[in-house]
Design a protein that fits this description.
There is one protein chain. The chain is of the alpha+beta class and 299 residues long. It has one domain: Sortase, Chain: A. It has helices at 6-28, 44-70, 218-223, 245-256; strands at residues 74-80, 86-90, 145-146, 156-160, 193-197, 201-214, 233-234, 240-241, 271-277, 285-298. The strands form two sheets. An eight-stranded mixed sheet has the order 2-1-5-6-10-9-4-3. A hairpin with a 3-residue loop joins strand 5 and strand 6.
């Protein structure tokens, strides 16, 4: 092959530069148009996730509005992401309605309460079904309800639900009966996440601790006061301030826990506490499930 002489090489370079300059001028003048760069479409899976999220929120809104129309005391839904529990809960702030009228509610044996002395808002729904306002011992076990002292901004939301015996709940699905599964560590991982659906807010939680509260032990009343709506205030002692109690409670709960969850629960956390009886020990042994809030979203 012949070597390209210097003169020929220079000629080729000049020709190439002239051609490039001509193309540039034509592009600038709009004579030649470069093909538009196609915008990459959003991955299909992202679009699907957004659609599913919106659909879920619409379902929540519909559910909330329907239940609120049934009973103005309706607060929201507790849903384990696993489906272990899906239950509505209500709250009565007092035994009297806002208009001053006494609620219709019942004792455990089905007698209507006419003298409200000594009763609190927690007694309104314990044996009364929130959808009908009627006494309900066997079918729904009354209602699942939030503590009458709670506001949704509180550090600790407390929700109570019944535990059914096998003779009136063979399916083991009513109210808070399924919480009994969380007494065993093998059932923890699959059921650790919980969603709280409120009026305009969705709160997400994870289970931090599961323990037994023994109502016959004085020590438990001192160390495991899960009923405090704000941990550093004693609601049953004139709302007295107790700066160290939350840390003390966490330490005591960890000592009493059924197993280690691995969740980093600290005194900076907002919590949701679920309480139910332990089978065969109603009024003596209670299962306490403490969940720490991990995120929130509006809808």
């Amino acid at each position: 092959m012949k070597k390209m002489n210097k003169k020929t090489l220079i000629g080729l370079i000049v020709t190439f530069l002239a051609l490039a300059a001509s193309i540039f001028v034509l592009i600038s003048a709009g004579v030649i148009q470069l093909p538009e760069q196609k915008q990459e479409a959003a991955p299909a899976e992202v679009v699907v996730e957004e659609d599913e999220s919106q659909k879920r929120k619409e379902e929540y809104r519909k559910l909330y509005d329907e239940n609120k129309a049934i009973n103005q005391d309706y607060v929201g839904e507790i849903r384990f992401d696993s489906g272990l529990i899906e239950v509505s809960f209500v709250q009565a702030k007092s035994v009297y309605k806002e208009n001053g009228e006494l609620y219709t509610f019942y004792t455990e044996d089905g007698k209507q309460v006419t003298d409200a002395s000594g009763y609190t808002g927690n007694d309104v729904y314990i044996w009364t079904y929130w959808k009908t306002g009627e006494y309900d011992y066997n079918d729904n076990g009354g209602s699942t309800f939030m503590d009458y002292r709670n506001n949704l901004a509180d550090q600790n939301l407390i929700v109570y639900g019944h535990h059914f015996s096998v003779w009136n709940d063979e399916t083991r699905t009513k109210a808070f009966t399924p919480l009994e599964q969380l007494l065993e560590q093998e059932n923890y991982e699959a059921n650790r996440y919980v969603t709280l659906i409120l009026e305009n807010e969705i709160r997400h939680y994870e289970i931090a601790c599961v323990y037994e509260f023994d109502a016959t032990r004085q020590e438990d009343y001192v160390d495991l006061q899960y009923w405090r709506t704000n941990y550093n205030y004693d609601d049953y002692d004139g709302n007295a301030y107790d700066a160290e109690y939350y840390d003390h409670y966490i330490e005591s709960a960890r000592k009493a826990q059924m197993y280690e969850t691995g969740v980093n629960w600290t005194s900076d956390d907002q919590t949701l506490t679920l309480q139910t009886c332990i089978g065969g020990h109603a009024g003596e042994l209670f299962e306490i499930v403490v969940l720490r809030q991990i995120s929130t979203e509006t809808y």
